[in-house]
Amino acid sequence: MAKEIPKFSPAAGFGKNVTDFDLSTATDAHISTLKDAFSEAGVLFFHGQELSPEQHLEFAERWGQINVNRFFATVADYPKIAEVRKEPDQQINIGGGWHTDHSYDEIPALGSMLLARELPQVGGDTLFASTVLAYEGLSSAMKETLERLSAVHSSRHVFGARPEMPGEMSSRIGNQEAALQDAVHPVVIEHPLSGKKSLYVNPGFTLRFDGWTAEESEPLLKFLYGHITRPEYTYRHRWGDGGMAFWDNRATWHFAINDYHGQKRLMHRITLEGEPLRAAVG
Question: Is the pTM of this model over 0.70?
Fold first, then answer.
């Protein structure tokens, strides 16, 4: 593997592949180049990496402070690395629906670095959607309507204690008593890095528009969810050995496809602290 200069190629209308580059050798200049690409693309895909947990952490810390997820199981001896695991005898995966991480927090996470550790022989792809491109594809009247709105997000219905929580999730999701926080965010945000406008609602954690009932909110949210997942705004990523995806929660959604029953899939995820979100103006 070449180690000198990261090379970029389009993954989709919004993502970029980073090739011929070993992340463990990244200099400050490389990080600066990668940050510019990340701001533009929304998600970066790295390939063929051979990172130890220490190197994974070291690379992440060069982007900012690590956010320790309070619900996920962690990697043994590495409490800052969350474990995204599905064993051959398990039926339910983690992240098996469209969402963006941590929108339930008052200060949502910047994004996550998901590193493949063990992959199924077939399946286990991840879908990504660009909430920036989706915003740009709306009519002017719809944009004006949405820019006046905020939405309520919560973790309670996903990570909180509930009788229908499948027993097989108990080893992978915990700390249910911490799922107490609701957060209100603008529906259209100004992206902190690119300055572009982005839609900030998602089916995983958004409950309703602020000041609206759930019933009043449902039709418009349903429209937005269908719009954001149109083919022209989405990309299907096929993982390879040593692959890592680094996505921006403020510019993308993701969806882990659960199509590999009877096989194991193990990923290590490091999430980075973000910053308060600002409503887009004008």
Answer: yes
